[in-house]
């Protein structure tokens, strides 16, 4: 009899706990099987917080609070990563550059490795890259040296035409040669007064040149090992992890490297195509220093959204100084067409699905990276975001897409009003029935 009484009490307690207000039964699962004393201490009805939440707090606020502290922790973690990276910026740049070079030279090294040892294939691939870059630089320097005098004369003539237009043209503001002489004299005075600052900046630039050589040397050193023993290094890293985590890291690393290498190789191919097309256009239009300007377009293609327009402006200025306004306008039009050809044909054809980022995401990433780390941030922001999205897409569990068409905002608003009116009439009926 006593056991039956306790059982009845347990059932009553569980029913009272489970039916307390509008609390879902899932929230009191942890009380199942507990003794009557434990249930009494828990006080699920008098103290809702013991079951994990407070009935006085709205559900939307509990959900928002849960998301908020998780997002704050995530932002704090990202901030720590950025701070640590800023402390070793030279090392980060060197490793990033080494990964870019490795992704570009990896296919060449693999092809050489079919007929020779891996170490010799690595050395030959690096030597091939040095020969190509050295040949380009030699050609650019030779072109500049051969056309410099001619360009300087044309540039002076263009400047004189510009000042003549400003002095005698139809513009409401006139600028005379006396104004120009005054500006030059003021510039000389400023240089004389700030000579010490200029010297200190020159010394800082010398230090930056030394850092650039240090970064390049470290990048080449890392590239040698990445090309020769990259797979072994990755296997060693995986073996240091717990067995339960290795599969996840393998999947994440594979997806990230596939995206990063595709972006790096695709960017090099697209930049090379842009440089060749720009060289053809500049040579056909008769613009001086076509080779250096084409190399500038090639370098600018590595900076998304910013580099290509900057190279276009410089090429237009040179064309304006040398050949006039019409030639400069033609240069701008053709380089803009090259940009459209790159965005709509080369990008989808070369990169394909390896880098699937919306243009809005690219613009936001480049802008944020520029504000955080200047030109360096603009260069590394897009590949980092692409790698992060590729890893996230590979590891997440994606629900099936919606099949129904999404209603418009007006339809949603009207349906909400209808539900409110129907709910009010229903509540009224229930109130009448209760009365």
UniProtKB/TrEMBL annotation:
Residues 1-29, 400-435 are annotated as: Disordered. It is found in: Cell membrane. Keywords: Cell membrane, Membrane, Transmembrane, Transmembrane helix, Transport. Pfam families: AI-2E_transport. InterPro entries: AI-2E-like (IPR002549). It is a multi-pass membrane protein. Transmembrane segments: none annotated. The keyword Transmembrane applies. Belongs to the autoinducer-2 exporter (AI-2E) (TC 2.A.86) family. This is Pheromone autoinducer 2 transporter. The lineage of its organism: Bacteria, Bacillati, Actinomycetota, Actinomycetes, Micrococcales.
